[in-house]
Write a structure and sequence with these properties.
By secondary structure, the chain is an alpha+beta fold. It contains 21 helices and 18 strands. The relative contact order is 0.10.
């Protein structure tokens, strides 16, 4: 088909101002060209003005093209061609990037939030590890890696949070880019009509995503690092009870940014694949007629009365795209469960349980090293002097005051044979100018400390009779008077197990087991195990510590003997701690006096409660922030999907208006749809949240390392979440419809067509 010269001149005189008209004219040029396929667009004409006109049209579309003159026998022929896919993709990507500033800002914010999550968590983990390592090196001068075990609970928790962050980030980013594709789908179709190939479309959208990711991830890495640094002191604050003198020691570590950047990039890449595949593979005809797929067709063909059947229409609309409905409901249910779980965990630190488990006394006085997980009570230099104890007893009305003696690494001349066999001597090394020997006993995997005769040192405590009522006896003699008599005879000991509430006691010696005591390599005395008992941590360690029973005995039995027998066995016996109670009215004066003592530290039931309340507050704040962020992401996803549905249904709304439905009725229809979504989310999500909080969470936290947590679900957050979801379900459709209805019915019909 060809046009006359007059028609061509008439076309050239026309001025095209609107982008849509320019795109249509470019499509017409392609249709009348020599070929129009994946190779590009080629138009040959004897009219130089037509070729130049085509070049101008395509340049306005952001596509670079060329015009060549070829000599033919009939005269010159001018060839217009588009054959540079890379250049086309580059220009179109730049043009699209600049044209959609608001949408780009929203996408960048989504990527920033996702990247912040990964970076802040990674910063907290790396910062905590570095701080602990630095503290250990400062105190011990050795690496903490030796003898450390893998904390699988921490690893599982970290993986769980990473998975949650990936899912939430994926949902948020995908929804935003899906809205972007839906809004641009017709433009991509028109670009296909003027010769842009599928590969070029992919390059266009991926270039946009690439630059948005670069900006968003970069900002997220910086902000996440700052947030992590600000939150790190909170994390370390409640770890000071475990690691004495623990302070923030976070040096710049590229691992933080590498790990967070990789996870962020993977999340973005996975999120954009589906929306961009739609943009790249859609045909020109499908693009120009693109609208939301309807999977539901009503069998009722009767004419609806809009006034009376809006509610029924709204309910049916939820079934028109079942995938979208399921996606909205499931994503919001996930966010509700996570938010409620975060609140429940934050409120789950059981202060009373912790205090009662770690100490049965009002006060525990010991040296600063004894309260340190890094140092611990290992040498006689860490002993509490009798002078300090006398000062306390003279100035404080002490009740049930008791000295707790403990063997040290200085007492290597006193060893024990409890029917065990040293199967292997592992090592000899010097620590703090002390020669330390370690070996294997009975093939146990944990090395034990050995004395000069290469027998186990064990964990030996000398206690006063006032301690005995504090024991929880499991087996053997339980009468306190009889036990007192047995211990004072010097021929009996009690085997002890100090455990967390969720653990089962572990004993290494059978009842009535004979234990031979060696001194300087020679048999000194033989005693018998008269009973087995469980004690709180204050009777074997400083309260608040969770690393075991000091570094003296290792994985050997814990024996209680009378303090008289202990003093007899050990030269210059060391006092690990002094424990006592006071009347309630003397609690504050006792605290003030002990604070004035320069060489000791203390733990009290009150300070332990304060520490745990601080931990509880910290966990609640962190959990609340994470929960709030997850909830916000869920609401953004909810809003995005509702907005996307309204955008896709502009033609439908315009059609309904054209046949008599009022704007008020359509607005009511969209609001009711949002409320139905909220109804499904609340009906399914709130009960599931309660089920998770009452079943899964208690099961997960019923671990020995998590014994201080007692999950306490509450219904108040669920009620608040339900109210917020309903409010969003009303406001978002209302505002969105009011925004998109500003244009006329005819204009909206034309746009969608």
């Amino acid at each position: 088909m060809s046009f006359s010269q007059e028609v061509k001149n008439e076309i050239l005189r026309r001025k095209i101002a609107k982008p849509c008209c320019n795109m249509a004219a470019a499509y017409a040029v392609a249709c009348f060209g020599k070929y129009f396929d994946d190779r590009g667009v080629v138009l040959q004409t004897e009219n130089e003005g037509v070729a130049a006109f085509a070049q101008k049209l395509y340049r306005r579309c952001g596509v670079q093209s060329t015009v060549l003159s070829k000599e033919r026998p009939t005269g010159p022929v001018y060839e217009f061609s588009v054959k540079e896919p890379a250049e086309v993709a580059k220009k179109l990507a730049q043009r699209s990037f600049k044209a959609n500033k608001l949408r780009n800002i929203v996408a960048v914010i989504a990527i920033v939030l996702t990247s912040m999550l990964f970076t802040s968590v990674t910063t907290l983990c790396v910062g905590a590890i570095q701080s602990i390592q630095t503290t250990i090196l400062q105190i011990r001068g050795t690496s903490p890696s030796t003898g450390t075990s893998v904390n699988w609970i921490a690893i599982i928790a970290a993986l769980f949070f990473i998975m949650i962050f990936v899912i939430t980030g994926y949902l948020l980013i995908r929804n935003i880019f899906e809205i972007s594709v839906v809004q641009e789908i017709k433009k991509y179709g028109l670009l296909r009509t003027i010769g842009t190939t599928e590969k070029q479309i992919k390059r266009i959208v991926y270039k946009q995503a690439f630059w948005l990711s670069i900006i968003g991830i970069s900002i997220g890495l910086i902000l996440g690092y700052i947030v992590g640094i600000l939150m790190l002191p909170w994390i370390l604050n409640f770890m000071k009870g475990e690691y004495h003198n623990l302070s923030v020691n976070l040096s710049f570590n590229p691992i933080i940014f590498v790990v967070a950047g990789i996870f962020s990039a993977i999340t973005v890449w996975v999120s954009i694949k589906k929306p961009f595949k739609i943009a790249a593979t859609i045909s020109p005809i499908e693009a120009t007629r693109y609208y939301e797929k309807d999977n539901y067709h009503s069998a009722n063909k009767n004419r609806l009365s809009f006034k009376n059947r809006i509610t029924e229409m709204a309910w049916r609309n939820l079934r028109r795209n079942s995938k979208r409905t399921i996606f909205i409901v499931l994503s919001m249910i996930l966010c509700i469960i996570l938010l409620n779980s975060a609140i429940a965990i934050g409120n789950s630190v059981d202060v009373k349980k912790y205090v009662s488990s770690v100490t049965s006394f009002d006060f525990v006085v010991a040296s600063p090293n004894t309260f340190s997980n890094v140092q611990g009570f290992r040498f006689k230099d860490d002993s509490v002097s009798n002078e300090i104890i006398s000062d306390i007893e003279n100035n404080i009305p002490v009740l049930n005051g008791s000295r707790i003696y403990k063997n040290t690494l200085d007492d290597v001349s006193v060893t024990y044979d409890y029917g065990s066999l040293v199967t292997e001597v592992l090592d000899e090394y010097t620590e703090d100018n002390h020669l330390i020997r370690s070996g294997m006993v009975d093939g146990r995997t944990y090395p034990v400390k050995l004395g000069v005769d290469y027998r186990p040192l064990c964990n030996i405590y000398g206690v006063e009779k006032s301690i005995l009522p504090k024991l929880n006896f499991i087996e053997g003699e339980t009468d306190i008077q009889q036990l007192t008599s047995y211990l004072e005879s010097g021929n009996y000991v009690i085997e002890i197990s100090a455990i967390n509430p969720n653990e089962s006691p572990e004993f290494l010696c059978p009842l009535n087991q004979e234990v031979t005591i060696y001194k300087d390599g020679l048999p000194y005395k033989t005693v018998s195990v008269i009973a087995r008992a469980v004690v709180d941590f204050s009777l074997v360690e400083s309260p608040g510590k969770n690393v075991g029973y000091t570094d003296v005995g290792g994985d050997c039995p814990i024996f209680y003997m009378s303090n008289e027998m202990f003093v007899e066995l050990y030269n210059n016996p060391a006092i690990m701690s002094y424990v006592f109670d006071v009347e309630k009215e003397h609690f504050l004066p006792a605290t003030e006096y002990i604070n004035s003592l320069p060489t000791v530290e203390y733990a009290s039931s009150e300070t332990l409660a304060q520490t745990m309340n601080g931990l509880k507050q910290t966990i609640f704040i962190i959990g609340g922030l994470i929960g709030f962020l997850l909830g916000s992401i869920g609401l953004v996803n909810f809003s995005n999907i509702i907005i996307t549905g309204i955008i896709n249904r502009q033609r439908e709304f315009a059609t309904l208006e054209s046949i008599g439905m009022t704007k008020k009725q359509i607005n009511k229809l969209t609001v009711l749809e949002g409320l139905f979504y909220a109804f499904l989310i609340c009906v399914m999500g709130l009960p599931l949240s309660l089920i998770v909080a009452n079943t899964i969470l208690p099961t997960f936290f019923n671990q020995p390392d998590l014994w201080l947590f007692t999950i306490q679900p509450t219904i108040f957050p669920l009620i608040l979440e339900g109210i917020v979801i309903c409010v969003v379900a009303i406001i978002v459709p209302h505002v969105s419809f009011r925004y998109f209805r500003k244009t006329s019915i005819v204009a909206r019909l034309r746009v969608v067509e």
